Amino acid sequence: MLNFNKQLKFSSFTGIYDVVIPNNHLLRKIAENIDFSFVNKLMEKCYCIAFGRPAYEPELMLKILFLKLLYDLSDREVISRCQTDMAFKFFLGLDPEDNVPDASLLAKFRTMRITEEELQEFLNETVRQALNNNVIKSKSIIVDSTHSRSKHTPQTPTQILREMTKNLRKEIHRTQNEISTVFPEKPTVENDIFEEIYYTKALVAALEKVELKSEKAQKLLVKVQKTLELPNLVELQSANDEDAKIGHKSEDNDFFGYKNHIAMTEEGIITGLSVTNGTAADNKELENIVNQTLENGVEVKDVAGDKAYSTSDILKFGIDKNINIISKLKENVGSKEFSDEYVVFNKDADTYECKNGCLAKKHKMRKNGSIEYSFYRCDCVKCPFSKKCIGDKNDVYKRILQNVNYELFEEQRKFEETEYFKEKCKIRWKIEQRNSHLKNQYGLNKTYGTGLWSMKAQSFLTAMTANMVKITKLVATI
After folding, report:
1. What is the pTM of this model?
2. What is the pLDDT of residues 329-381, one digit of tens each?
3. Segments in the chain below pLDDT 70
């Protein structure tokens, strides 16, 4: 039950805050400049008003999450600090002798109360408060993506199934060794995913005909059955984090996790955010984060980004919205980039990446002005998508040929030569600095939880926290 009509109470210890918390303390300044009360009305529908045990206000819970991210603490650590740190209690609006919620309630609030709609509204509210405080003065936004590594280890689909069936057989050998005779012959190490799936199905079919006495074996069998039913089984890269994917920061530097696509003003206020798996192309999310910025009331004249954003669809988007795209053209972007269900261009690796996570080799530009990209024969032979991806039966590996003479880019090339473009390019370093702060100061370099939803919650709450701190610091300079 949520009750906003609290009785007024007085504490004889409140004066301690004036003694131990200096006027220039960051949390005191944030409390003076940021209004958290919006969350009570926003999340009122998530609680029962008429009956039930009294619940802690959403405003209090959100403030605790703010402290958790601001100081990069675990749930238990932030609750422990809230119990003993007077600056924390002052910021939360509690009296020194008041109790704080249990760490388990904080986890429930984050995972069960907050929805994706609320996450977006948290970020939108910080942008509105920045506008109300007149700290956003520029008409340029900077876009970029930064990655967050999953706390889990990447695996191939073959490794996932192999580990599951191994654990299942091991448990049966331990508890019912007499029925191990029904096991089909194990596949060899060189077998591909489809042969591994065939073996796993044969094992499941054999065990369904016998009675498993071990409860653990029964659970392991159910887990294997559910895994076999997954529609994206051949694309899985982790048994523990099914949403995380292997992305590339460069041709020889990859990561397993997610991408955070960010739009930010020159002042450092994050105005748009989109969270995807690690393989998502940066340019595909630009329209989303720019539209978020516009919907929040921020006027946008220029969008600055790296070479990933100099694609034909983005330039057309800029023309439609009357926005200048401040992004230098890549060597190969004079043409319409090849893209289909199985292959996209990876700007960080500066080459094409297939659905199976393999990178193509980039060849030198030919005399006719074309560039060839070819995937490695050994990768394509083992790929589960090779037949549909390559198509031509005469080819054994994927090849892409680009002609760099697309007319749409002629105006952009001329725009690159102007002083205005060159001057605006100089602001890009600001988002690199902000990305570094998000990852190293607020803990966005690695996921706290598992799955895309958990990553979205972490990213949006981190962006909200960073915005509130930045607004506080900017207000002090006005």
Report:
1. 0.80
2. 876 555 456 777 888 877 777 788 888 888 888 887 766 557 788 888 888 88
3. 1-12, 49-53, 189-191, 251-252, 331-337, 366-369, 392-393, 403-408
Q: What are phi and psi of 271, to 5 degrees?
A: -110, -15
Task: Confirm if 141 and 290 have CB atoms less than 8 A apart.
Answer: yes
Smallest CA-to-CA distance from 74 within 104, 94, 36 is with 104
Decide: 275 and 261 in contact? Cβ < 8 Å. yes
